[in-house]
Amino acid sequence: MRSNVRFLLLCSLLMLTGMRDPFHPPEDRCAVGQLAQWRYLGVVSGISSIGILQDGQKRWHRVRADDRLPVGWRVIAIDEKELVIVLGDACEPKQWQWQREGTGKNENQDNALADDTQPSSVGEQPKAGQSGRR
Fold first, then answer.
1. Where is the composition biased (Polar residues) (predicted)?
2. First vs last Cα of the chain: how many Å apart?
3. Topology of domain 34-103, CATH
4. How far apart are CA 83 and CA 63, in angstroms?
5. pTM for the whole thing?
6. What 3-state DSSP class applies to 81?
7. Which has the closest alpha carbon to 41: 59, 24, 27, 29?
8. pLDDT digits (tens, 9 = 90+) for 43-72
């Protein structure tokens, strides 16, 4: 009987202290998991630059410097190549930057061949006495 009371008291104490479910991922207050889903697609230059962003749900956002995004991030810099945000003091990383789509180092990496030609070895049968490996 005493052990049941102790067990009940221990369980109650754990519930009252707010112990979280160890199988549930911790809460992402800074929304760091969403950073890779957002895309910086361009800028409209004028008196003040307006950045064009697309979030993970494919919604469009127009932002200026010092604007706050819906997840709580603050835009600190916009130019034609990148957009920089601050996530918050308690967040890691504290800042994040997106490069504008199409300004990466390997822009032509995913482009198809222009004239739809294939290398001569594609589709050829190996010659007699060859394994077909190169």
1. 109-123
2. 77
3. SH3 type barrels. (2.30.30)
4. 10
5. 0.56
6. coil
7. 59
8. 998 888 899 999 889 999 999 999 998 888
Please give the Cα distance from 28 to 17 (Å, whole number).
20
Look at residues 44, 30, 38 and name the one whose alpha carbon lies nearest to residue 78: 44
* Cα–Cα separations (whole angstroms), residue 45 to 9, 36, 91: 64, 25, 30
Q: What single DSSP character describes residue 5?
A: H
Q: What is the mean pLDDT of residues 91-118?
A: 60
Domain ranges of the chain: 34-103
Higher per-residue pLDDT: 81 or 127: 81
Nearest 5°: CA angle at 43, between 38 and 48?
120
Task: Retrieve residue 29's tokens.
Answer: 């207050």
**Size of the chain in residues:** 134
Q: Give the max Cα distance, the chain.
A: 86
